[in-house]
Design goal:
The protein is elongated and about 90 Å long. About 20% of the residues lie in helices and about 45% in strands. Strands 1, 2, 3, 4, 5, 6, 7, 8 and 9 form a nine-stranded antiparallel beta sheet that branches. The chain is built from two helices and nine strands, in the order H-E-E-H-E-E-E-E-E-E-E. The mean pLDDT is about 80. The longest helix has 24 residues. It is α+β, with helices and mostly antiparallel strands.
Length: about 130
């Protein structure tokens, strides 16, 4: 009787400690950081602009995302790292007030990025 009780207590105790250890080592979800990462900051443009034609341009500073002159600007930028060289930006549309918008970017290299906004995908160069 004593041996069965001790075995049961050890099993229950081991399971309890095991669940505590597993719960404390789980990774936290990606969180939103203020501003923009350094890899994203600067002037970006497509190949048409490089040839002197009209094309897409993008400017990213620490707190501001500007896409051409016709599209809304995002202010109060925040970003979340989604994976290897993938970032999601969130900010308020400058012209729409409290409307939030997101942009997903994939940095292929230091000087080349693809981004997606409003269902439109573009490749830009630094």
């Amino acid at each position: 009787m004593y041996r069965k009780t001790m075995t049961a207590l050890l099993v229950v105790g081991s399971l309890g400690l095991g669940s505590l250890a597993i719960g404390s080592t789980q990774a936290q979800a990606a969180k939103w950081h203020k501003g923009a990462p350094k890899i994203a900051r600067g002037h970006w443009h497509d190949k048409d602009v490089m040839r002197g034609r009209m094309g897409e341009t993008m400017y990213i500073s620490k707190k501001l995302f500007v896409l051409d002159d016709n599209d809304p600007h995002l202010t109060h930028l925040k970003y979340k790292k989604m994976g290897n060289r993938r970032y999601k930006f969130r900010g308020y549309e400058f012209e729409a007030g409290k409307c939030q918008s997101t942009v997903t970017m994939h940095f292929i290299s230091k000087h080349r990025v693809t981004f997606k906004q409003y269902g439109h995908r573009s490749t830009l160069y630094k």
